[in-house]
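U., I forgot to send this yesterday:
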Amino acid sequence: MSNIETLLEKIEADSKQEQQSIIDAARQKAEEIVRKTEVESREKSEVFLKKTEQEAENLIEKATGRAELEARDQILKIKQSTIEKVIELAVDKLNDISNDDYLEYIKREVASVDLSENAELKVMAKYREYIVENFKEIKISEETINSGFAVQDGNVLYNNDFVGIIENNRSDIEGLIYRELFSNGNLKK
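Result:
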């Protein structure tokens, strides 16, 4: 899985700049919401000041708290959206690795399981010809798959679909992406 980790690290590095601009936009929007709410609060406080000064302070606190919650929710939505984009980019990058990297990934994963001589390897269509020419350990199936590869050995299917692998490890991957993208103190807010 070191190739996947390497690719994820590369994707994460590539997306940090885009992430920062998204966060900056979210912060600007949040500040705008806070400013707008503060203006509304001041106007309301002037009207209600005649009733009681305490009542005006309560209104300001409520309005500010609401704006802060809205801003926080907006930032959380943007962070989650960014994590989703990084995962999509990771799958795209994995589905577009070089012929040699794809072959090495298959060799490494196939070597880790005990297969019979009847096993068949199903690969992505765009890599099929290259794999047929360069991988003689197992029969290559005519059937292709959309992502990663699979090995059919009798009734057993070893599924190394990139999307499936990412989904099976989604919570760990999301945590890793979150730590990498939002590790800066300013981005944690």
